[in-house]
Amino acid sequence: MILSDDCADIYSHKTLRASMGALFFVPTQRTSDLEKTLLDLREKGYHTYATTLNETALSLDRLTVGQKACFVIGNEGHGLSESVIEVCENSVYIPMTGGCESLNASIAASVLMWEIFKNSRR
Fold it and tell me: Do residues 7 and 49 both lie within one domain?
């Protein structure tokens, strides 16, 4: 898990409680230059996907996600910056039905991580 410098504190008591300790089993790193980090990941063979609702975004259910997938998730209020979206290989959205417009960042991250896990078992 790669976090930008302006990300919330992952060691706050609320975050630790919400993760139920899983945070201690997930390698994490902070970056002050998210765009450069994403470009470095692409050079290492990772597919980078900005989670955004734009006209070119791919539906998650139509995407084959491998273990070398990196989903970039913005905050609920502002989403991702244009510079981060542009550096990603593609954009992706989670299809939903009903009156739901969007998911919060943690729920979206859970769905996306499940896709990576599910496809790694095939």
Answer: no
